[in-house]
């Protein structure tokens, strides 16, 4: 059934070869509101009722978020991984779009707050904030030289508040199983380089959670290996296998420890922050080389450093000298198989969402470049990015469509 639903969503949101976010209904941004609503709390917009129809008495929600495992990846692996087919049989898979940009820094700030990128202002992995006169990576909040930004606080990276205080006020206990400590929930950390450590951390979380509860488990390993090897690689398939072995074992452990009545009130969800598209490192365009040579067209920090780092290779924000905006637009639209959006068009089309905040507007590039299927970046500064195979951040359907799979624990026994 989800194949037909995915096709309908694809057709509705299609803009040629690109797929636009479905912010008004079937969007990743509505997952936090949906989880909260199931547990009796209100933290913002939720998915349409059909997404969770039949889940009426829920006292615990478990969300496994597998970074980068979009709907195309689910569809490509479902015949090979019995667990995915079993999950489909036991529950349902609802296709959603993610937000734009389809990348972790923006999407996860949305996931933990319910705020869209147009509101929280994280325009990509890399952010330039003119008020702070800083370029930094939103995750892990570092400059390119590895130092901490000095003119902006970590708390000001995203202009939003998390949903967890509101969940706590409604009596919902939240636990996070992640490779890094959580500051606003009960943390259970594991080693991202050793997936065997995930099992103990997850078991600790579910054993200590007092219902009504929300347990969030984050697994970034598939995304990491896809960057270097691509989704059509043996290394990627091996990582996918291990990841879902851990998820399946976690669910089995949870089922063994849960009585029949509680199992019917436990909802298990599988989702992703975005999907992936394989690019071609031999053809990924270098903006610092001919015919582009864009570095001299860029605005600079007050110390004269060109503002290269804003967005990502699939979502390039160009902060240009005023007299170079239109010439660069003409050059890029001539030389690239890409959509090049002027700032005005980004705002009019609500590409990052409606109701732009001042934080978002000042960080938004004069031009935003979204290549159809390649990565576009600065090889003189970050050649490794142009060498990535699997990428995300753009508007390719394989990046934009994600699964929201749900099943009660008793149906998965």
Automatic annotation (TrEMBL):
InterPro entries: Alkaline_phosphatase_core_sf, Phosphodiest/P_Trfase. Signal peptide: none annotated. Pfam families: Phosphodiest. One of its GO terms (molecular function) is hydrolase activity. SUPFAM superfamilies: Alkaline phosphatase-like. This is Type I phosphodiesterase/nucleotide pyrophosphatase.
